[in-house]
Write a structure and sequence with these properties.
eight-stranded parallel barrel, single chain, 537 residues, 20 helices, TIM Barrel, Glucose Oxidase, domain 1, alpha/beta
């Protein structure tokens, strides 16, 4: 028996055989060619096949992990059509008169190194992406594009690292858990593992001799046990059975009110990023939508979504939720959510740069189009509007002024809408938390975005894997800002919710209830577990 400890990034316990996912490849050989035009044509054929494969992966990922997490494969498709990437491959083939495999591998290595050396964490993350797409094209060119992810039986996948495409390609019905040496808790693969509801651990240095051995993956403790003894197996089976029973019991909470023992009603909402997520929100008995991430309407296309496109999406969600409240966050782009057609420009520190409401207030034509669509949708359901990344009273007043302009336009055009749409803001900066009592007098509600609030309070880039060990969302300063915001919101007459990841952290549910929180908005899959905590506190 051997036991190794890493960091658990996907909860649960798995028992089964290990399969070492070894993607070490033969060195790509440099071969001289005479007909460079034919060689580049061979590359373009392989590129087209790669884009087709990524399309299949996107569709598979949409079903298994949702559109938001599947979007990485659309990014990979776009990267394969990047002009700089293509020019590099073409130049190497033509100038050096070499085979396409060598040109693609060299370009992939060069671009990967270039991204890895950038200071910005978003662009650093693209290093793995460009390597992934290059390896895919090389495999197709070399004729070795077999399914390295095939499995005859349920297994625990152990690897040096896993690209998103590799994670999704595995047969989910035969996938027990992931264990990798590299990666961070915020990597695409980590997010996919959590969405697939699988135990997963990072930070385990493995031995290829483990292949085929029996093991236990404990995502709670972050431990991998090789050749477990009978007592360890018995304990793991017990935990697994308890997890199954807990999931079954949680389903019995469907239809029950989210009310504390003292009789306080907590609104328990769901976070969604598109129309397709409403089914999951309703299936998990969410009492409304606390965060509709509208920016995904912008991320999914190659041009600004029209007013009609947005209206259709908002109207459909409002109707599907059947009168339950739907809080639509106005577009929150910038930072790690870049859209080329917005032409936001390069920034040294995009997380603290030109993003979210700062874009909307300086480009009112974009903002007004979205607000018109939301107000039109308000005639078909219980819609509310929330403005992100607020730091000042002046920003709130500017937003309200534009809202009044939009309402006047719609009224003049004879377009129906609800006058009393609730307006709220996200509290995700220490600045907003500190002046929250002042802000509360101007809005109907607050929603605390704990992901960014933690990042800005602790001065820690949440995308930086090197800082995972000190990125403490339970830090006393973060919790004090949450407590203060709830108290100040109530003083100013606003109801207060939490929509960041901490809303689903059941170790803090009791604390938030004691603070006086009115609403918690979580991923649909966490609704029932949070309800369980609410009714037992």
């Amino acid at each position: 028996m051997q036991q190794f400890t890493g960091k658990g990034i996907g909860k649960g316990v798995a028992i089964g055989k290990i399969k070492i996912f070894d993607k070490s490849e033969e060195k790509v050989r440099r071969v001289s060619v005479e007909d460079t035009a034919a060689e580049f044509a061979r590359f373009e054929e392989a590129k087209a096949k790669a884009i087709e494969q990524l399309g299949v992966l996107y569709e598979k990922a949409c079903v298994e992990v949702g559109e938001e997490n599947a979007a990485i494969f659309e990014v990979h498709q776009m990267m394969l059509d990047d002009d700089d990437y293509l020019d590099s491959i073409k130049n190497i083939i033509e100038e050096q008169k070499v085979n396409a495999e060598y040109a693609v591998a060299t370009t992939g290595d060069n671009f990967s190194e270039m991204f890895a050396n950038m200071e910005d964490e978003y662009f650093k993350a693209r290093s793995a992406d460009v390597k992934d797409i290059s390896e895919r094209v090389v495999r197709i060119l070399s004729g070795s594009d077999g399914d390295s992810s095939s499995m005859d039986e349920p297994v625990i996948i152990v690897a040096q690292d896993l690209a998103p495409s590799e994670t999704v390609q595995f047969d989910k019905s035969k996938l027990l858990a992931f264990v990798t040496h590299l990666g961070s808790s915020n990597s695409h693969t980590a997010i996919l593992a959590r969405m697939m509801n699988l135990p997963a651990i990072i930070g385990i240095e493995f031995d290829k001799a483990w292949d085929g051995k029996k093991a236990i993956v404990d995502g709670y403790k972050g431990t991998l046990t090789i050749d477990p003894d009978d007592e360890q197996l018995k304990e793991a089976l017990l935990i697994r059975e308890k997890d199954k029973e807990k999931a079954k019991l949680l389903r019995t909470l469907k239809g029950k009110p989210s009310v504390t023992k003292s009789g306080k009603k907590i609104k328990l909402y769901a976070n969604i990023k598109g129309v397709n997520d409403t089914a999951s929100a309703l299936d998990n008995d969410a009492e409304g939508v606390g965060l509709f991430r509208s920016e995904f309407l912008y991320l999914e296309g190659d041009d600004f979504p029209s007013e009609e496109t947005q209206f259709s999406a908002y109207k459909t969600v409002a109707e599907n939720m059947g009168g339950k409240q739907v809080v639509i966050r106005t577009l929150d782009l910038g930072a790690d959510k870049q859209v080329s057609y917005f032409d936001l420009g390069q920034e040294d520190n995009p997380a603290m740069g030109y993003r979210a409401i700062r874009i909307c207030l300086t480009r009112p034509e974009i903002f007004k189009t979205q607000l018109r669509a939301i107000y039109r949708a308000s005639a078909f359901g219980n819609v509310a509007i929330m403005f992100p990344m607020i730091i000042s009273l002046d920003e709130v007043l500017q937003c309200k002024k534009i809202v009044e302009e939009v309402k006047a336009e719609l009224k003049a055009e004879g377009i129906p809408f609800k006058e009393d749409v609730e307006l709220g803001i996200m509290i995700e900066t220490p600045a907003a938390a500190v002046i929250s009592e002042t802000l509360a007098h101007e809005v109907d509600f607050f929603s605390i975005g704990t992901n960014d609030l933690t990042q800005y309070t602790l001065a820690i880039d949440r995308q930086n894997a090197k800082l995972d060990n000190i990125n403490d969302s339970h830090h006393p300063a973060v919790l004090e800002l949450i407590r203060m915001t709830i108290e100040n919101g109530h003083k100013g007459g606003a109801w207060v919710g939490i929509c960041g990841e901490l809303a689903a952290d059941t170790t803090l549910t009791k604390t938030f209830i004691e603070y006086g929180v009115d609403e918690l908005s979580v991923s649909p899959g966490f609704v029932l577990s949070v309800r369980n905590e609410i009714i037992n506190n």
